[in-house]
Amino acid sequence: MTVHSDLAAHDGTPNDGTPSWLARLTEGSLARRRPSRHEALAVLGSGDDVLLEVVAAAARVRRAFFGNRVKLNYLVNMKSGLCAEDCSYCSQRRGSQAGVLTYNWISPQQAADEAARAAAAGAKRVCLVASGRGPSDRDVERVARTISAIREGHPELEVCVCLGILGAEHASRLKEAGADAYNHNLNTAASNYGSICSTHSFEDRVGTVRHAAGAGLSPCSGVIVGMGESDDELVDVAFGLHELGPDSVPVNFLMPFEGTPLAGHLELSPAKCLRALAMFRFVFPDVEVRIAGGREMHLRSLQPLGLHIANSIFLGDYLTSEGAPGAADLAMIADAGFVVEGADEVTLPAHRRGNGVPVAPALRRRGPGTEVPANA
Ligand code: SF4
After folding, report:
1. In whole angstroms, what is the distance from residue 102 CA to residue 8 CA?
2. pLDDT tens-place string over residues 255-270
3. How far is Cα 23 from Cα 20, in angstroms, rounded to an integer?
4. Model's pTM, two decimal places?
5. Ligand 1, closest atom to CA 94?
6. Contact of 340 with 66, CB cutoff 8 Å
7. Does residue 159 share a domain with residue 196?
8. In terms of residue numbers, what domain contains 81?
9. Is the same domain home to 126 and 250?
10. Which residues line ligand 1 (CB under 6 A)?
């Protein structure tokens, strides 16, 4: 709040009602310049009096790169619960009393059947998820067979895999098996990581995203908002993700499951969620920003405003909790004036395509021949 008030006081307000700091931030984001920390904090600290201006500014950026398309993703929980890790937000963690479904690997055909249902409902990407610290060789081979089974019926579907901490060899094997993307969220800032998990580190997560990208898998990595992090920490993780160059950034809002350490932890309002989404949109103007878990619980009646910022959502149920019926989400998308992105449409703008690998070298614009010092 303080940050925004300071900026507004110094900057004044242009005629259309958009504060000048926000107008400048928007122009920078449209030019694909990462906001400064000060600007990102100003978005998070802005008041409800300018909420619609913030949403409208983020919507300009969203429309510039993604038009009015909404990408639908579908989660398939291939192995549920009984994880030995202790991520405090997770209903599948060690010692969880959340009462979630627990089962071992579903068969490749069961997963393919789920994927077929998702495709019929309009999903463009299926996310194959398994609980656990990371996969064994056998797990990776099982997922490889699952990808083949999905491809047989629905070659048009994008397949994202999410199996925890991944090494370079497993990443290459998944790529070879036909996976398009790999998801591993950073979740929170490095400085906050120790407070949410003790069994693996922030660096493990960064390493996994790097291995996925290095194998040519489209890197997908995001956050969980609402775990007690400060605005500074939320900006830290956004900027940390930015350095990793993900193609998609899921923004989750904490679902505080009973029977987990974060039970009863409710610090989010719909407006706060919109500000967080907007900050991620400004930091990732041309990247798929997805409203992920907690959408229904925390955005509630303001979900359609979220679609003006994010260009992607999950359809239907989540890993261990129930989401809205797919038909209700499709109606919301249509009512808000958006269209579901088709299988023949490419999500990312042309300049970003290439599975996370830069499509062309960035031309040097600093150092000798310029007024700007080179990186050293
Ligand atoms: S490693 Fe994954 S499944 Fe296990 S507790 Fe952490 S988030 Fe949950």
Report:
1. 51
2. 999 999 999 999 999 9
3. 5
4. 0.90
5. 5
6. no
7. yes
8. 70-345
9. yes
10. 83, 85, 87, 90, 92-93, 131, 133, 164
